[in-house]
Design goal:
Length: 249
């Protein structure tokens, strides 16, 4: 009985110390999160070319949420394709079709991917499949490389600016550990740091494309208006037309 009483008194004192420790650790953890988010914002905000971001971004993103591949993508104005701005891989092979290009012309169909659902509902999607192959069954747009790398868990959140979805932040993992709701919330906080930069790049690209189309149309008008015979300007006409419309024949 005496030993039990002593143990009880000791536990009361220890409990108070442990409680104080938890109250101290929680704000510290939040301060670490805030510090990392600031670092992410500084890295992304340091360039207007997201595809040229140095590899330091990936390790920063993984300090908050683990992932074998992390993608920042834009979405085309018609909502049909993804444009890869940034991708970082650890422990899996890069997917050739998802490699960011310097001119951002490489597109990946959005159909059959988690991004399709995110774009439609404007809400995050989290998937924890039993394997990469099972994931691909439900999301065939993921591609064979996704399944081959065993990427079974995905968090995909929208990048929203001015009430428009301009792209997505996607974490993918082949770990046996499932993604949970807390990690989804952290990815959403990261997305807030990225959304304006992705919107800026996508809007600038759209403006450039519109300017190019208008210039090409004006050139076509000048060429056709000055020709007495279509055959005389046919080659020039088709070259100008090919700049704004893809065609084979």
């Amino acid at each position: 009985g005496r030993e039990l009483a002593i143990a009880s008194r000791i536990s009361e004192k220890v409990a108070g110390s442990v409680s104080s420790s938890f109250r101290f650790d929680q704000p510290l953890r939040e301060s670490e999160i805030e510090s990392i988010l600031v670092d992410i914002g500084n890295v992304v905000g340091s360039t207007l070319e997201l595809q040229s971001i140095e590899k330091e971004l990936g390790p920063l993103l993984r300090k908050l949420v683990p992932g074998n591949s992390i993608m920042i993508t834009g979405v085309t104005e018609d909502g049909q394709h993804l444009r890869v701005f940034y991708m970082d891989y650890v422990g899996v092979e890069p997917e050739p079709e998802l490699t960011p290009g310097p001119d951002l012309v490489a597109l990946h169909p959005i159909k059959g991917t988690t991004s399709e659902g995110v774009l439609k509902n404007r809400k995050p999607v989290v998937v924890n499949a039993s394997s990469g192959t099972d994931f691909e069954k439900n999301y065939p747009g993921a591609g064979a490389a996704h399944a081959g790398g065993g990427l079974r868990s995905v968090i995909n959140v929208p990048l929203i600016a001015s009430d428009e979805v301009f792209g997505f932040l996607t974490y993918r993992s082949n770990s046996s550990d499932d993604y949970d709701i807390e990690q989804v919330r952290l990815v959403e906080r990261i997305a807030l740091q990225l959304a304006s930069s992705v919107a800026f790049v996508e809007l600038r690209r759209r403006d450039d494309a519109l300017h190019e189309r208008r210039t090409a149309l004006a050139s076509i008008q000048n060429v056709m208006g000055s020709a007495l015979n279509l055959s005389d300007v046919w080659t020039e006409f088709t070259e100008l037309l090919g700049g704004i419309i893809d065609f084979d024949t």
